[in-house]
Amino acid sequence: MSQLNLFKKKLSGSHLNIIVSVESAVKISDISVYLVGGTVRDILLDRSPSDLDFLIEGNIDLQYFANLIGGTLLQESRFGTFKIDFNGEIVDFAFSRQEIYPSPGQLPVVKKGTFKEDLYRRDFTINSIAIAIGEDGEFSKIIDPFGGQNDVLEKRIKVLHDKSFQDDPTRILRLFRYSGRLCFDIENSTRNILIRDLHMLDVISSDRLTNELYLILNEESASRAFIQYANHDDKMHLFDGAKIELSNFLKMDHQEVQSSKFSQELKFSILALSIPIEMLDTWVKKFNFNSDFLQILDGVFEINNIRGDLLKTNMNNSDLFALMNKINENVLRACLIIEEFSDLKEFIFLYLNKLKNLSVQLSGKDLIKLGITEGPKIGQILHELHVAKLNEMIFSLDDEKEFVQKINKNNS
Ligand code: ATP
User: Measured between alpha carbons, how far is 371 from 43 in angstroms, rounded to an integer?
Assistant: First the structure.
């Protein structure tokens, strides 16, 4: 086995089979195929890549190609990329292309290009390395025009040219995302142009900006990415100048955040709770948040509004329930994580760990059986039961029945 093929040890059996299938199509057609991007970077880092990214040079009908390699063609984009399903494994393919940037921050004009031109349009040297697929799926050659292998070895992120961030300022956020994920440093000349071009973050469209923010929030290492970012951008362009305590970013590493299936939402809630409340409106305009994230921002406003109410001494459990029940739960959980000891924290704790789970055992049907006439009265009594239960006036099923019978008697 050649030195290069030792890298294949990092690939799973199914990935190796896919590579052999792809090579069989190369053999009988006029195309060349390469592994590129994150796949190659991860292999060089001695990690198993989570997915395969193929680059195709040449022309081939997509449906014919999918048939040749035994997969199902899924979707095709106008940028010459497409996906193929191999027995449930979705693999990304792209025709090699070049990109021309009409003006900073805008989407590029995309044209067909050679695979070398495709490597040149990429963001960082560590993502601009290709492995050519040869006979029987062997790794035949590594193509590394920008010294990416060395940068992987030296653990540093470097752009390919000094207009890179001006061409596409989303790369600024990609840089922090990778540096957080891989624990890589920012190469010196890249750092200089980064600082020069940070203001370009202001020209990214809100869709693209929001997407990059989601991608960072999706990373386990989001806190590192944000801290790196904050350490470089003292004007905090991404957050419209809002200063955020670095210690708040670190709260994103909390075990409860990392292990939650709502990890992304919790991190966003931590972020939203960390910025001055008067900036939330600006945020809503700057980004294009989806409805879940807008609900989180509503929840942050709501928490801010109820702080005063919570100090009222005559607040009982059902009042607390009514206040908390309308707030997005991720915001409440994030509050528990970032708040120091406070009344708010205690109230949220009581709500989440007790009140939220207290439900009435009797159903509407049970009430009818107990002699309540069908209609709006049923909902009203169920609500009264719930209030009584929250306020610890009733506990058991028998208490509930007795409570209903009393109401029934009073009404008759
Ligand atoms: P990973 O995040 O692990 O690199 P990925 O496949 O999720 O893998 P993508 O964001 O899909 O990463 O990008 C795939 C490749 O496309 C990258 O490795 C990079 O070379 C290139 N790329 C993506 N976005 C840009 C960009 N804005 N500018 C230049 N190149 C980009």
Answer: 71
How many angstroms is it from 148 CA to the middle of ligand 1?
14
- In a domain, residue 359? The reply is no
pLDDT at site 412: 65
Which amino acids bring their CB within 6 angstroms of ligand 1?
37-38, 53, 122-123, 127, 168, 170-171
Host H or E run for residue 72: strand 72-76
pLDDT of residue 136: 76
Torsion angles phi and psi, residue 157, rounded to 5: -105, 130
Domain boundary, last residue among 238, 273, 292: 238
CATH code at 182? 1.10.110.30
Host domain of residue 255: 244-354
Ligand 1 centroid from CA 61, angstroms:
24
Joined tokens for residue 146 = 């920008």
Give the end of a domain, one of 116, 135, 154: 154
Residues 6-23 have pLDDT tens digits of: 788 889 999 999 999 998
Domain count, the chain: 4
Q: State the average pLDDT over residues 110-127.
A: 94
Tell me the CA–centroid distance for residue 37 and ligand 1, in Å: 7
Ligand 1 centroid from CA 124, angstroms: 9
As to burial, measured by CB atoms within 10 angstroms (0-12 exposed, 13-18 middle, 19+ buried), residue 332 is buried
Q: Is residue 271 domain-shared with residue 258, that is, in the same domain?
A: yes
CA neighbor of 175 nearest in space, from 218, 224, 107: 224
Of 122, 160, 164, 209, best ligand 1 pocket probe by most atoms within 8 Å of the beta carbon: 122
pLDDT tens across 296-324, in order?
999 999 999 988 887 777 789 999 999 99
Q: What is the pTM of this model?
A: 0.91
Q: Which of 161, 163, 170, 253 is nearest to 215 (CA)?
A: 170
